[in-house]
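Dear V.,

Thank you for sending over the compound details. I've combined the ligand you provided, NAP, with the protein sequence from our construct and run the structure prediction for the complex. I'm sharing the raw inputs here so there's no ambiguity about protonation or stereochemistry in the SMILES, which I know was a concern on your side last time.
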Amino acid sequence: MAATSRLLPVELSKAGFITSKPECCPQALNSAVGLRRLLPSHSVQQQKVANNVAGCLPTSFWGKQLPGERKQVQVGRAPAPRLQAVSIRASSDGDKGTIAVAGGTGFIGSKLVEKLLNEGYKVKVLTRSADKAKSVFSGKSIEIAEPHQWNQALAGTTGVVNLVGTPIATRWNEEVKADIKASRIKTTKRLVDAINALPQNQRPKAFVSSSALGYYGISDTARFVEDSPSGNDYLAQVCREWEAAAKGVNGPRLVLVRTGIVLDKDGGALAKMIPLFQLFAGGPLGSGRQWFSWVHRDDLANLIIEALENPKYEGPVNGTAPNPVTLGEMCDKLGQALGRPSWLPVPEFAVRSLLGEGASTVLEGQRVLPKKAQDLGFTFKYPEISGALRAIVAS
Ligand SMILES: NC(=O)c1ccc[n+]([C@@H]2O[C@H](COP(=O)([O-])OP(=O)(O)OC[C@H]3O[C@@H](n4cnc5c(N)ncnc54)[C@H](OP(=O)(O)O)[C@@H]3O)[C@@H](O)[C@H]2O)c1
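Below is the predicted structure of the protein with NAP bound, written out as structure tokens.
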């Protein structure tokens, strides 16, 4: 392997865009020269490196979304019969009902399914692959439905959660961007059509559909709450369309969870950052001043369950911790939690050279606050980044 192909991932990993390649040599860590050498190169090698780096992107890549529709939540819905805001807490006989989770095999979904089962719900996992679901939930008592069974599986459920979407932490091209959009919007429409096709008395009472903080666009200065306007970039547009697709649901109470950067050990951004820090190579990408609106995976799963159960949840709800940090602070705190230093930032030009259009999602962020959840009394177990990281590292 050419020397440059090892240097670059390490350099970029400083932002937490960690490459998971432990072969990165320590000497490479402070070599901006290696990075420069790589930039002019093209082709397969560069593509590989870029993909490697992109795969390390913190979830701001996930998170950009689209212009808002807080009020559109109502507008987009068919005026037709809507169930009232009904609680789906346990009935008197203790039966909490069944929740269908599309995308339940993923990073967020697998934690949610575990919590739902612990809380006494029956769970149906809607997946493209029964084999994958069986392997993820080995030993767990769930029902599994592949796409041709989704319509039937949704009938009579108490609530439906939509967590589907192809990963966005990759180097974008037109094909990838089309897939990022289609995997979310088409699947959401598919779920909505299936719910709407059910007889009224068979429809779920609540539909909790994921969106992302990219809805708000990017800013170093603004504070975004649920009624803030949407941004103008690609991810903001994706999120608007994603939310608009969910708003087509007719009957269930709809909650749109604008999810932040989800942190836990076995997936998401941290799974890529931690190994890098352990190699003494963690540090922010770009200035480090960009906002990093994070949420612990436990809190997000609890928030989704609250959104299913509590009839006061309706429309957009920010799924972020109450105390966002800058990426620089995030890397400092992660370094502290791991007992490792946080390295110098990776220069912006390098990130832009590698990621092109997608770089802005890494180099810029947004400060998103969970106003609605807090107004409704939701308690975050991990409100501060230090506590969240300490818990994750210790787990
Ligand atoms: N993780 C974050 O930090 C974060 C931040 C903001 C927003 N979100 C959003 O939250 C949702 C869940 O995130 P996650 O981190 O749990 O994602 P994940 O681990 O990648 O899981 C997403 C699930 O979606 C399904 N899926 C993947 N590609 C698909 C495709 N092309 N077509 C249809 N289904 C596909 C997969 O389920 P099957 O293979 O079983 O079908 C997969 O398990 C996503 O919509 C994501 O955009 C996540």
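A first observation: The pocket of NAP is lined by residues 59, 62-63, 103, 105-109, 127-129, 132-133, 163-167, 179, 183-184, 187, 210, 212, 259, 261-262, 268 (CB under 6 Å).

Warm regards,
I. M.
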